[in-house]
UniProtKB/TrEMBL annotation:
Pfam families: AbrB
Family annotation (PANTHER family): REGULATOR ABRB-RELATED
Record keyword Transferase present: no
The protein, known as: AbrB family transcriptional regulator
InterPro entries: AbrB_dup, AbrB_fam
Length: 356
C-alpha cells in the first residue's frame, strides 16, 4: 500500500515534463556524440533547471525516488548476465586490487577532508561529506553526530555527479571513443531475443533479488540482489539474454533525471560555495584513482581503464552502466564498487569517535 499510496500522490504532469526534458537532453547529448549521452544529458538538463528554480510549464522538476528504484534493478539484472564461468574463474587474480581498496579509500577520504577544511567548511561536514561511498549511510551518520544535513548531502551528491560527468570524458580520452551508443547501453547478450518465459524469469530475478536483498540487508541491495538472482538464472540456463538495450537506455534517462531532480530547492549560496571545492575534490580523487589503476593493472591482468572504473568513487549503478556500455570487465567493476561502499561506511563508522 505504501508504494501505491506514493504513486497516487505524484504530480504526474510534473513527472511527465521532467522525463520529457531529460529525454530531450539525452537526445541532444547523443547528437553531440557525448559520452554516456542518455545519462549525462538528462542529468545536466534536469539539474540545471532544478538548481535554478525554474518551473517550465508551471511545474517543478520531479522524479520520485521510488520510480528510480524501480528501474535500477534493470542494471543489476543486466550485470547478472555477465557472470559467466570464465569470468568467475578469473576472480582469483583480483585480490591485489581488492586489498588495495583498503589503502585507496582512506587516502581519498583524507584528501577530500583536507580540501573541504582548507575551503573553510566545518570539520564535521567536511568529514562526512568526503566519505568516498555510501551516500545515504554517511549522511545519516553525520546527522546523528549533529552535522548540517543539507551541506553533507550536497557534498555527497556533487561527489557522485561530478564523478559520473568526469569519468566518461576521461574514458573517451583513454579508449578513443565515446561511452555508450545511440541505441543505449548494450552488451553482447542484449542481442539474444528473449522468450516470454525468459522475460518472466528476468522480472522475477529483479523483483525477488530486490526484496530478498533488502530482507537480508545486502550492501546496495537494490543492485546486488538482482545481480545475484540474475547470475543464478543465467548460470542454470533458465535464461540466456538480458534486458534489451532500449530498456537500459530508458533506465539511463530515469536515473539521470532522478539525480538532477535532487537539486530542486537547493540553497544557491551553499551550491556556490560547495561546487568549486567538490570539483577540486573530484579531480584529486580521480588523479589518485588513475595512479592506483596504473600500478594495479599489471597485477590483476585487467586493463588500466577497467581498474580505473572499478576504483572511481561514483555511484554503483552509474559506474556499472559505464562498464556495461564499454562491455569491459563488468563483474570486476561491480564487485569492487560493492566492496568500496561497504568499506567506506565501515571506515566512517570507525572514525566517528575521532571526528567527535
Amino acid at each position: 500500500m505504501g508504494f501505491l499510496d506514493g504513486l497516487r500522490r505524484v504530480d504526474y504532469a510534473a513527472l511527465a515534463m521532467t522525463l520529457a526534458l531529460g529525454s530531450a537532453g539525452g537526445a541532444v547529448a547523443l547528437a553531440l556524440h557525448l559520452p554516456l549521452a542518455l545519462l549525462l544529458g538528462s542529468l545536466l538538463v534536469t539539474a540545471v533547471i532544478a538548481a535554478a528554480g525554474w518551473r517550465p510549464f508551471g511545474r517543478a522538476v520531479l522524479l520520485p525516488v521510488k520510480l528510480r528504484s524501480a528501474f535500477v534493478p534493470v542494471i543489476g539484472v543486466s550485470i547478472g548476465g555477465a557472470f559467466t564461468p570464465e569470468v568467475v574463474g578469473q576472480a582469483g587474480a583480483w585480490w591485489p586490487s581488492l586489498l588495495a581498496l583498503g589503502l585507496f579509500l582512506p587516502l581519498a577520504h583524507a584528501t577530500g577532508y583536507l580540501v573541504y577544511r582548507m575551503g573553510g567548511l566545518p570539520r564535521l561536514e567536511s568529514f562526512f561529506g568526503s566519505v568516498p561511498g555510501g551516500l545515504i549511510e554517511t549522511v545519516q551518520m553525520g546527522e546523528e553526530a549533529g552535522g548540517d544535513v543539507r551541506l553533507m548531502t550536497v557534498l555527497q551528491f556533487l561527489r557522485l555527479i561530478l564523478t559520473i560527468i568526469f569519468v566518461p570524458l576521461i574514458f573517451m580520452v583513454l579508449t578513443g571513443g565515446a561511452v555508450g551508443s545511440a541505441s543505449g547501453t548494450a552488451m553482447p547478450a542484449a542481442t539474444v531475443p528473449l522468450t516470454a518465459q525468459e522475460v518472466a524469469v528476468l522480472l522475477a530475478a529483479g523483483a525477488s533479488g530486490l526484496w530478498i536483498g533488502r530482507l537480508v540487508r545486502l550492501p546496495a541491495a537494490i543492485m546486488t540482489g538482482p545481480i545475484l538472482f540474475s547470475a543464478v538464472a543465467h548460470a542454470t540456463g533458465l535464461v540466456h539474454g538480458v534486458p534489451p538495450a532500449w530498456l537500459v537506455g530508458v533506465t539511463q534517462v530515469v536515473v539521470g533525471c532522478g539525480l538532477g531532480a535532487r537539486f530542486a530547492g537547493a540553497d544557491r549560496r551553499m551550491l556556490a560555495r560547495a561546487v568549486p571545492l567538490a570539483v577540486a575534490n573530484a579531480v584529486l580523487a580521480l588523479g589518485i584513482t588513475f595512479a592506483f589503476a596504473r600500478g594495479l593493472a599489471p597485477l590483476t591482468g585487467e586493463p588500466v581503464a577497467a581498474v580505473f572504473l572499478a576504483f572511481a568513487p561514483g555511484g554503483l549503478a552509474e559506474m556499472s552502466l559505464i562498464a556495461l556500455s564499454l562491455q569491459m570487465s563488468v563483474v570486476y567493476v561491480t564487485v569492487h564498487h560493492v566492496l568500496r561502499i561497504v568499506l567506506s561506511v565501515m571506515m566512517a563508522k570507525g572514525a566517528r569517535r575521532w571526528i567527535g
